[in-house]
Design goal:
The protein is mostly helical and about 190 residues long. The protein is about 55% helix and about 5% strand. It is built from seven helices and three strands. Strands 1-2-3 form a three-stranded mixed beta sheet.
């Protein structure tokens, strides 16, 4: 791991906050008419993606709040999915800002909170990009955030995750912007 990767892990809550802020900007693009639009996440439309993001943020909130994550996260209720997700994001950041935990359990496996928050930041930023893309208005992941996530992504996405959770990495120039390189590593076409 690079020095930058180690620093990103240590600053996991800050990284999570920046990913959430970026994604909140993408959520501003969502309208009810777009909910059936396809997303870069194979077989998901925008409504499915928003529901998945809500479940993921709920799991991360549980890790901060009660110290463990149940693998069977309950489905979100009805209502406006964007408003629900925005509220969930704010609650998530508040929980981590006030948490003094150094680790939390996920499926019975204890993980350092910097791993959880950094993984959460990666997922939230990638899905923030997915949301904007599904809305027809792609937004690059901010350069500093993308570079920090690029240092961490090989720890969190391996060949075991492909082709199940992620498509194969796409070839891209190392001179491409960090956002594009991160998305290509995750199997997304920037």
């Amino acid at each position: 791991m690079t020095d930058e990767g180690a620093a990103a892990l240590i600053g996991g809550v800050g990284l999570l906050e920046r990913a959430v802020n970026y994604t909140l900007g993408s959520l501003l693009l969502v309208t009810p008419e777009l909910m059936s639009r396809p997303t870069p996440c194979r077989a998901w439309n925008l409504a499915d993606l928003l529901a998945h993001m809500n479940d993921s943020m709920l799991a991360l909130h549980e890790a901060a709040d009660i110290g463990h994550v149940a693998l069977d996260v309950p489905a979100a209720g009805g209502g406006d999915p964007v408003a629900t997700l925005r509220d969930r994001a704010c609650q998530l950041l508040g929980a981590w800002a006030n948490s003094e935990r150094s680790e939390a359990s996920v499926g019975g496996l204890a993980l350092h909170t910097s791993i959880l928050t950094s993984t959460g930041a990666l997922e939230i930023a990638a899905h923030g990009w997915d949301v904007a893309s599904a809305c027809g208005r792609p937004r690059p992941i901010p350069p500093a955030l993308a570079e920090e996530l690029l240092n961490l992504v090989p720890l969190f996405v391996t060949d075991i995750d492909r082709p199940g959770r992620f498509d194969p990495a796409l070839a891209i120039s190392q001179r491409a912007p960090g956002s594009d390189r991160l998305l290509a590593f995750l199997g997304r076409r920037p």
